[in-house]
Design goal:
This protein is of the alpha+beta class. Helix 1 (about 130-145) packs antiparallel against helix 2 (about 150-165). A hairpin with a 5-residue loop joins strand 6 and strand 7 (about 90-100). The mean pLDDT is about 80. It is elongated and about 70 Å long. The protein has 2 helices and 8 strands.
Length: about 170
């Protein structure tokens, strides 16, 4: 049997959430630890090399203490964004949560600080990029059929890697 308890975090993972609020993405962290609730905090969202920083506001409601982060939704591309607090001194403290952004779907606050690689499967990708990838993959398959299987597998991997880098 697995352990269904959430990972240790600097806030209450069960009562925290993410949602759209107008043109913004809003992340609400419930019952933040005392050092998180101080003023002047910035939360950094990161997806690969892309980093977006947003100011965090602490508030006290009938439901308890909350740390609210708002960032324009237009600044967030699809993927699982990691969250970290940037303290006034410049120290960065990762949070045990990620923000999942998927097109027009609702935003999702995920447990855990680390995420796997995010990608859109070719069958669901849309537009010229996806068409180019599918066409190139079919052409490469036909050309590589003349090679022995092991060589063809290596060549397909290299071609796929190059295509992702170029069409990216």
């Amino acid at each position: 049997m697995g352990d269904s308890l959430p990972p240790p975090a600097e806030f209450d993972l069960v009562d925290s959430f993410a949602r759209r609020r107008g043109a913004d993405a809003e992340i609400v962290l419930a019952e933040p630890k005392t050092d998180l609730a101080g003023g002047g905090l910035t939360v950094r969202l990161a997806l690969g090399r892309t980093k977006v920083e947003a100011e965090a506001e602490a508030s006290e409601t009938a439901d308890g203490r909350r740390l609210v982060v708002r960032v324009p939704r237009s600044r967030l591309t699809d993927g699982a964004w990691s969250l970290a607090v940037v303290r006034p001194g410049g120290d960065v403290a990762p949070l045990a949560a990620r923000l999942l952004v998927q097109g027009e779907r609702p935003l999702v606050l995920l447990w855990g600080a680390n995420a796997g690689t995010t990608y859109v499967p070719l069958a669901r990708a849309k537009g010229a990029r996806a068409t180019a990838l599918r066409t190139g993959a079919r052409a490469a398959d036909r050309l590589l059929d003349v090679l022995p299987e092991k060589q063809a597998v290596r060549a397909r991997r290299k071609a796929r890697k190059l295509a992702r880098r170029v069409l990216g």
